[in-house]
Write a structure and sequence with these properties.
alpha/beta; 7 helices; homodimer
């Protein structure tokens, strides 16, 4: 039987990245699309609390089941799993292709990866794919062979329980990419500046402008891999517990 | 010199929880408030991308610096750190008191905890406080002694770098709480149902209704502690890398 594959993203159902991903996934199984009806970049692991959700059929795809949802990427996974496909077993959830890198610390802010992590929470093998190019018109054609190889491995060799894969693909042509590397998350951050302006009514407002800063030169991290022209895969868990933190508090705190 | 303490939350600047927390924190140092101007529950680690931010003085508090921000809890921390207080060193960030539990998997969906984790990313000792009672009118008076003890320890004995503390306080009166326990995150999930309705125009919409399910009976996890009437502290990291996941892929995948 063909695997059942759910495709979602955070750039919205009409973005080029998800259309490219659906085309690739159609070779692997029965594809169901549930994606946000509006851009959801930077939504992190947000869910819709205290408000309604809409789920409306989309005619952007030839697939029988393709829907746009008014919620976040995590909502899309939840409504697909517990409403639309609740009688069936989803074999794989793929999210993306995101227009922009989700490497290192960006995994926390990423709607693309929150959909994949929600999949892992729900005990479904899940992968987020991102292209390290923020231009929504960037070339996607070189991503195909790498996505195919990764999806093939996921379907044949599995992903451990409670783990979602964060895949980032360099923004260069296929022939220049050296291969695929399993990595850890680089310890980098976004340093923000706030660009103050005034609206026509004299009230101030701000644009948040982030500058990516990486001081982590470990060759085994995802930033190093991408900068060396490898596709990076970081297996991500959602148990945030820190053993080091527990030990420190037990030893040093007086509670 | 008195410590500089930033207070934020996700229920919004006018909620009872943050007012209670500010009152407590005023005993410890100079308190600056930057909190969302609207409820942000369930916002996870969302940040405002591609839209403006407002930061407007609030007169709800006697503190010199109290502001409401149009963004998410993580935005509040960023604009406080990199704009409002950019010339100063913040000694502690506290977020809450959240009206509702953020134990176990809820840490991922929680705006309260995303503010604390953003603080840890920015290298500032950070704590999220939540009361395990979703009633916005729930009694908060019993939380004071525990919050004070935890803040005292954080200021005197420190929190390790890159770690934020997730504190959950049972919803019972002070004399019944047995103490404070350092814990790990319980492996529980929210199982959703979607309640379908029709609007006056005949179009369907959904309410997402979550049911908390915990099969993890480890006595060292936060759910067990809370259910045994302890205040739980889970030290949380933001490096999601899974060593187990890396080992599995390196051994079993053909890439």
């Amino acid at each position: 039987m063909k695997p059942l594959i759910l495709v979602t993203n955070d750039d919205g159902i009409d973005s080029r990245g998800i259309r490219h991903l659906v085309e690739i996934m159609n070779h692997f199984g029965e594809v169901v699309i549930v994606a946000p009806d509006s851009p959801q970049s930077g939504m992190g692991h947000a869910i819709t609390v205290g408000d309604k959700l809409r789920l409306v059929k989309s005619d952007l795809f030839d697939n029988d089941l393709s829907y746009k949802c008014s919620g976040t990427p995590a909502d899309c996974v939840k409504i697909a799993k517990h409403h639309l496909l609740k009688e069936r077993k989803i074999d794989l959830i793929v999210s993306g292709i995101n227009h922009g890198s989700n490497s290192s610390i960006s995994v926390l802010y990423s709607g693309t990866m929150s959909a994949a992590i929600e999949g892992a929470i729900e005990n479904t093998p899940s992968i987020g794919f991102s292209l390290c190019d923020y231009d929504p018109n960037a070339s996607l054609s070189h991503t195909g062979p790498f996505i195919k190889k990764i999806v093939q491995n996921a379907l044949q060799n599995g992903i451990p329980d409670s783990i979602a894969l964060n895949v980032n693909i360099p923004a260069v042509s296929n022939e220049n990419i050296k291969g695929i590397k399993v990595c850890k998350q680089a310890n980098a951050i976004w340093e923000e500046k706030f660009d103050k302006r005034y609206d026509p009514y004299g009230r101030e407002y701000f644009w948040m402008v982030g500058n990516f800063v990486n001081h982590d030169n470990d060759p085994d991290n995802d930033e190093s891999a991408i900068n060396s022209n490898y596709v990076s895969i970081v297996p991500c868990k959602f148990d945030l517990s820190s053993n080091k933190g527990q030990d420190y508090l037990k030893k040093n705190w007086k509670i």
